[in-house]
Amino acid sequence: MKFKKTAPKKVLLFLSILIFSISCSKDSDLLQEYILSDSTDTEEVIDDIVDNENDESINSGNNDIVDGNNTDKDDSGPLKAFPSAEGFGKNATGGRGGDLYYVTNLNSDGPGSLQYGLSTTPSSGRTILFKVSGWIDHGGSDYLVLNKPNITIAGETAPGGGIGIRGELRIQNDNVIVRHISVRNDDGWSGSNQAAVRIAAYNGESTEDIILDHVSLGWASDENLTVTSTSNTGYVNRVTVQNCIIDNNLNTGYNAINYWNVTNFTYFQNLFGYSTDRNPQSTTCGAGSMEVINNMIYSYTQGAFIASWGIDFDVIGNHYDTGGNSLPWGDAVVQMNDPRVQNCEELGKTDLGLEATRLYYEDNLFNNGPADYDSYSKSRLQSAPQVSSGIIAYPATQTRNNVLTNAGAYNGLQQGLNSYDRDLINKVQNDLQGTRLTSRIYPLDFPTLGQGVPYVDTDNDGMEDQWEIKNFGDLQQFHNGDYDNDGYTNIEEFLHYLAE
């Protein structure tokens, strides 16, 4: 991020270039207006351009995002959700260009609550910030629903020990960024509130462009993470789950599932901990496509990656450690011989059997040696990635350390990992093994998320006053302005400062 102002002595040269250039910038438009006016002299034009260079208050929520020719941008394609975003969901825009909403209490609904902020989001989008820390109770059958598009949940703004959700977070609309929150279910679930996070497409609709980053989730009763469409015509598409902790399902032991019509899905640099299997699993014939890259899978008792028939998938640079458990499939970390995934014929998809499955497999570790795959998988090996989003994988020998130093809510931030996540990472780091949890009671077994003082934001533009003064010189910048013309709004730059 660069912040600089144009020196007035360069304005005459700048002006002469603009006269003969085709530009969509605000200064060029202003210049054209003056040229069309007979009553305006050159000195007034120069004065006004200098004023505009030093007055960013004209920026609004409708200001254009600069194109890929800006040298401060990543030239590899569209602007990322945030600089470290990877995978198929990396270009989600979330609440960019929308309004701001502060969560000011831990209530399950009503003004100031997280649920109220989600349900009242305008179509132009919203970035949700936090002035409180602690657990928001959506236990029992009261799941937290995100059913509006264009939303950023910026958990990195929470004071103290950060923000957590008890129950299920259900994402069922497009273009969502979620960073630095904990989502934990418990024994008290009921109804359909069975996951920790559910990404779903209902009633034949699509749910697209989602990224979860540094989310700690688990203690569910079905899968910890469930991704699915509910019909043949709906689909979930372009999703990334990265730098997350997914662990300790209390009932089935299942960690993550891509169930039905899920395409272009990335699992990158996550910790899957203490499970039976589904790390992850693609269950339904022809379910879609996914890449599983540089993840750490620790202490599982049955299966690692169970793949359905009729899909394309890449498995690259992962480290599988059984945590001392003996496995029915030995060192085969990719299995396609599970009866649960051989369901093409019963679904009427006779053209999507084993022969329609394509696997790219490279550099995976099992405990501390090379990992293997079953005979079904061997017959479907390909020589190049099948669904690549552009991630450059690092060697599997680096995966354990890289994941454990990055994964989880608030890992590396001022709030820090909560006591449970910290203990979990220590167990994996030091191979302390142990067994999967089967019971958690709220609030007794939940880690404390300590209270803290929110950052000072006197003008309620979402940005800390001290940071604004340091980077802008004053408090006059609008949250949707783009001070350095790199495409990210000012509020996004502040969020990057907190989280990157």
Measured between the Cα atoms of the first and last residue, the distance is 12 Å
Low-confidence stretches: 2-73
Q: Quickly give the CATH architecture of the largest domain.
A: 3 Solenoid
Question: Quick check: average pLDDT?
Answer: 86
Explain how this protein is built:
The chain is an alpha/beta fold. Helices cover 15% and strands 26% of the residues. It has an 18-stranded mixed beta sheet that branches. It has a 6-stranded parallel beta sheet with strand order 4-7-9-11-14-17. It has a 3-stranded parallel beta sheet with strand order 20-23-27. Helix 2 packs antiparallel against helix 3. The longest helix is centred in the N-terminal third of the chain and has 12 residues, at 42-53. Mean pLDDT is 86; it is low at 2-73.
SSE topology:
Layout: H1 11-19, H2 26-35, H3 42-53, E1 99-103, H4 114-119, E2 126-130, E3 134-138, E4 144-146, E5 151-154, E6 163-167, E7 169-171, E8 176-184, E9 197-201, E10 206-218, E11 223-229, E12 235-242, E13 245-247, E14 254-258, E15 262-268, E16 271-275, E17 281-282, E18 288-293, E19 296-300, E20 305-306, E21 312-316, E22 319-321, E23 332-335, E24 358-362, E25 365-366, E26 369-370, E27 372-373, H5 375-378, H6 399-404, H7 419-429, H8 465-472, H9 490-499
Parallel strand pairs: 1-2, 2-5, 3-6, 4-7, 5-8, 6-8, 7-9, 8-10, 9-11, 10-12, 10-13, 11-14, 12-15, 13-16, 14-17, 15-18, 16-19, 18-21, 19-22, 20-23, 21-24, 22-25, 23-27
Antiparallel strand pairs: 25-26
Helix pairs in contact: 2-3
